[in-house]
Amino acid sequence: MTCTNQQVLLLRKNLMTYNQKTSAAKSGMCSKTARKYTKSQKLPRDLKSSRDWSTRSDPFEKTWDSIEELLEESPTLEAKTILEDLILKDQTSHSMAHLRTLQRRIRDWRASKGPDQAIMFTQRYEPGQQSQSDFTCMNALKITLQQEKFDHLLFHFTLSYSSWSHVTVCHSESFENLAGSFEEAVFALGGVAGEHRTDNLTAAFNCKKTPRVPTDKWQRLMDHYGITPSSNNPGVSNENGVVEKRHDVLKKKIDQALLLRGSRDFESLEGYADFVKQVVTTKNALNKSRISIEGPHLKRLPVDKWSAPKIYPVKVRSTSLVHINNKVYSVPGRLIGYELKAFVYPEKIEIFYGNALIQTMSSLTPHIDYRHLIDSLIRKPGAFERYKYQESFFPRPIFRSTYDLLKRHNPSRNPREYLEILKLAKLNGEETVSHALYLLLEADEIPLSSCVKELLDLPPKRPEVFVSQPSLGIYDALYGSQTSLFMQEQRVVI
C-alpha cells in the first residue's frame, strides 16, 4: 500500500497518543505500512528511488538527428510545426500525442545548444536628457460614447527619467495629431528635454531612407523647441522601451479606474478625455519626488507655440488645379483625382501627398506652373486660345513676344508651334530656350520650334586656345643655375 507524506506525518502524531494499530487506522493506512515507516523514520518521498531508464520507447529516436539539423538552420522553428511535418511524412510513427515530448526535447536542446537569446540592457537616463512618445491603441478597453463603440488611440508622452506622463485622445497617427499632442504635452510640463525619441512614425521620420531622417515638418517643430529628434531602429521597439513599458502600466491603471467607476460608457469625448487625464494626474502625483528632481534640468519653452500651418485637405480636379483660400494652384497631372494636404503658412504653401512633399509655392499669389500642364495642352492645342490662365504660359517676356510673332506670321494656325517651344523649355530649361529665341529674333528669323531645337542641338562652341612653345634655351639656363647652386652648397659644407 502506498501513502503520502501527510499520512506518515499524521501517523507520527497519532503514535504519541495511540498504539500502532489504532494510529495506522486513524492515519488511513494498514498496520504493515505503519510498521514500515515507523521503523525507517523516513517519509515516502525519501524512500523513492530515481530510475535512469525509460518506461516508454523514444518516438523521436530515428528522427531526432534530422530535427536537430532543422533547429540548427532555423532555431526559431516551433515543435508543433516540426511534428506536423513529421506526421505528413510518416503517419505510422508520429502523432500529435507526441507534442509534449517534442516540446520538452527542443526546450532542452535550446538550453544546451541553442543560440543566445536577445539580452535586454537596462538604460540609465539623466534628468532632462530625454522624453519619449508613441501612440497606443485603446480598443481593448471597449470604451463607448453614449453606448456607441469608440475606437481610438492615446498619444502617450513621458519623461525617461522621472516618468512624468501626459496623454491625448487621438483618432490617427497623423502629423496633425502628433504635433498638436506633443505641444499640448510640453506646455503642460512647462519645459522640454534635450532629446525626443519616437517609434518609427511615418509622420515624424522618413522610413524609406537609411539611416532614417526626420520629415521636414517634424524637424521644423523640433528646431522650434531646440530638441534633437531621434527614433528607434526598425524592429527594435525596446529602444523606445520607456514609453512602451509604460503603455501597459497606463492601460492597466485606466482599466482599474474603469472598474471602480462601474461603467465604460461616457456621455461625451470630452468626459472620457478628462477621465483619462485624471488617471494620469494621479499617477504623476505618486511620482512627485523624481519629477521635482527633473524639473530644473528641463529647457525653457519658447514664448509662442510653433507657428503651425493651417492644414486643408484638397482634391485635385480634372483641370490639374487645386483651390486654396480662393486662390488657384497647379499640380502635376498625375495627381488628378488624388486627395492632398495643403500646409498653409503666412508666406508659403506646401503641398503633400502623405508625407511626401510635392511642391512649395508662394501663398501670396496664385501659381500656375506651365510645366504641370504643357504635355496635356499639346494634345489639345485648340484649348490654349481661350484658356483662362493663359498668361501663366508666358514665363518670360521673350516667350510672349515669340507667341505674338508666331500668331502674326500665321493667324490661321493653332498655337501648337508655341506650345512645342514651351515643351522644349520644360525639357531644356527656360534660360537655354530664351537664349535661342533671342538669337532667332535678332536674326529676323521666324522662331519656329524646329529652329529652336536646331540651336539647342548644336554642340557648344569650343574656345580656341593658343599655347606658345617655350625656347629650349630656358631649360639649359635652369639646369645651369641648379648646378651652380649645388656647387655653392658643396663649398659651404667643406
Global mean pLDDT: 85
Task: Tell me the structural class.
Answer: alpha+beta
Overall 3D shape: elongated
Rounded radius of gyration (Å): 42 Å
Indicate the CATH topology of the largest domain.
Nucleotidyltransferase, domain 5
- What would CATH call the class of the largest domain? Alpha Beta
Which bin fits the share of residues in helices?
40-55%
Helix segment count? 18
Alpha carbon gap, first and last residue:
120 Å
Overall number of domains:
5
Outline the low-pLDDT stretches.
489-494
Biggest sheet, spatial arrangement of strands: 5-4-1-6-9
> From the coordinates shown, what is the CATH architecture of the largest domain?
2-Layer Sandwich
For the record, what is the CATH homologous superfamily label of the largest domain?
A: Ribonuclease H-like superfamily/Ribonuclease H
Instruction: Report the biggest beta sheet as strand number plus sense, adding barrel if it closes.
Output: 5 strands, mixed
Number of strands: 16
Strand content: 5-15%
List the helices and strands and how they pair.
Elements: H1 5-14, H2 20-27, H3 31-40, H4 44-47, H5 64-73, H6 79-89, H7 99-112, E1 130-137, E2 144-145, E3 148-149, E4 153-159, E5 165-170, H8 175-189, E6 195-198, E7 205-206, E8 213-214, H9 216-225, E9 228-231, H10 241-261, E10 265-266, H11 269-286, H12 288-294, E11 310-315, E12 321-324, E13 327-330, E14 339-344, E15 348-353, E16 356-362, H13 370-379, H14 397-409, H15 416-428, H16 430-442, H17 449-457, H18 473-493
Parallel strand pairs: 1-6, 2-10, 6-9
Antiparallel strand pairs: 1-4, 2-3, 4-5, 7-8, 11-14, 12-13, 14-15, 15-16
